[in-house]
């Protein structure tokens, strides 16, 4: 009855967990803390989520949906370098705005297969990334290699930035702009696959 009175749903529990993750860090999200935030007893949450691992998986899917929507809106109608910059900026801005949720998208969490199958974010993210890179004329296996390069660059940059890893006097923003310039140049002049590389 407490859960019903509180108007709890799986989505509301997930959002409360996501907000807590952004404020305190994903590692600080516990069932007790989320219950306290919602003003209910811990046991009430288990009607809606199976436990902490399930909750973190749901946070990751929520974040993937949100981040992908931002990227889709930013890149709509763009191609080439304009699309690359818009994609990267939307990625970085989401990581800045929602650090805890973003962290959840980068961890190897065990997510309920049914939930994952019905979540549009991860699938759409793959489609957007591959679609942008095809604009550079890339095909497999280069597409997959380029996707990994972009993810490594974007995530590496925002993770180091969040950890205070850029102590040099030069602005991280200036370095970000130059990094995107370099990525664009590389994508336009992607080295040919070596003979024998699997497709």
Topology:
Elements: H1 2-6, H2 10-24, H3 31-38, H4 42-45, H5 52-75, H6 80-97, H7 99-105, H8 113-118, H9 120-134, H10 142-162, H11 172-188
Give an overview of the whole structure.
The chain is mainly alpha-helical. 70% of the residues lie in helices and 0% in strands. The protein has eleven helices and no strands. It has helices at 2-6, 10-24, 31-38, 42-45, 52-75, 80-97, 99-105, 113-118, 120-134, 142-162, 172-188. Helix 2 (10-24) packs across helix 3 (31-38). The longest helix has 24 residues, at 52-75. The protein is globular and about 60 Å long. The model has no long low-confidence stretch (mean pLDDT 92).
Count the helices. How many? 11
Task: Write down how many β-strands occur, each being a DSSP E stretch of 2 or more residues.
Answer: 0
Main beta sheet: strand number and arrangement? none
- Low-pLDDT ranges: none
* Protein structure class: mainly alpha
The arrangement of helices and strands along the chain is HHHHHHHHHHH
Counting copies of identical and different chains, the oligomeric state is: single chain
Beta-strand percent range: under 5%
Identify the overall geometry. Answer: globular
Radius of gyration equals: 19 Å
Q: On the 0-100 scale, what is the average pLDDT?
A: 92
Distance between the termini: 56 Å
Task: State the helical fraction.
Answer: over 70%
